[in-house]
Write a structure and sequence with these properties.
Length: 190
């Protein structure tokens, strides 16, 4: 199995590059952000709880997102591999992912980390907010909080995956096509 974590701060381009990766490598896309937004759209109790946190730019509790990922993996028996997008976001989530994959006799093949400058992140998110209508993409204070939460809770994963020799930093500045070419160079060596 080829199991990829696409990593980076909010606005780094994880979603756009995930689409390119799925098309080329035929992996199952697991985006915790997308799953949470579909729960919000359905108005489920989980969605109502998640929306309150997402609208502030805070993380949803680990047990909720780990449960969602577990469910999706269990229900994808024919997958050739997965691309994890927006997950893991905490060390506890990364440890849980290692365990879930180990139970399936597989593991994280590699981490693709998109590096983008702060000003560019804010610009991209505000731009996306105009089309997506996402409330967390339209308010500068919420965007800044999301980037702060990333620095605080998610960036420790850089050392977590470096210690496993799985971390691959990619320059995330440039056109979507250009960045994808950089990603394929790394992924073709997995
Ligand atoms: P972005 O990468 O642009 O921040 P996402 O769609 O990945 O967008 O995430 C949007 C929001 O959903 C996050 O700010 C957070 O509130 C919630 N979320 C998504 N994934 C996770 C996760 N793995 N753990 C906790 N919260 C999450």
């Amino acid at each position: 199995m080829l199991n990829i974590v696409i990593f980076g701060p909010p606005g780094a381009g994880k979603g756009a590059q995930s689409q390119n990766i799925i098309n080329k490598y035929h992996l199952v896309h697991l985006s915790t952000g997308d799953i949470l937004r579909s729960q919000i759209a359905l108005g489920t109790p989980l969605g109502i709880k998640a929306k309150k946190l997402m609208d502030k730019g805070e993380l949803v509790p680990d047990d909720i997102v780990i449960g969602m990922i577990n469910y999706k993996i269990e229900n994808s028996p024919d997958a050739k591999g997965f691309i994890f997008d927006g997950f893991p976001r905490t060390v506890a989530q990364a440890e849980a992912l290692d365990k879930l994959l180990k139970d399936k006799k597989t593991f994280v093949s590699g981490v693709i980390s998109l590096e983008v400058q702060y000003n560019e992140l804010v610009k991209r998110i505000l731009n996306r907010g105009k089309d997506s209508g996402r409330s967390d993409d339209q308010d500068i204070a919420i965007i800044q909080n999301r980037i702060m939460v990333y620095n605080d809770k998610t960036s420790p994963l850089i050392n977590f995956y470096k210690a496993q020799n799985k971390y691959h930093a990619i320059n995330g500045m440039g056109s979507i096509e250009e960045i994808f070419r950089r990603i394929t160079k790394v992924m073709d060596a997995f």
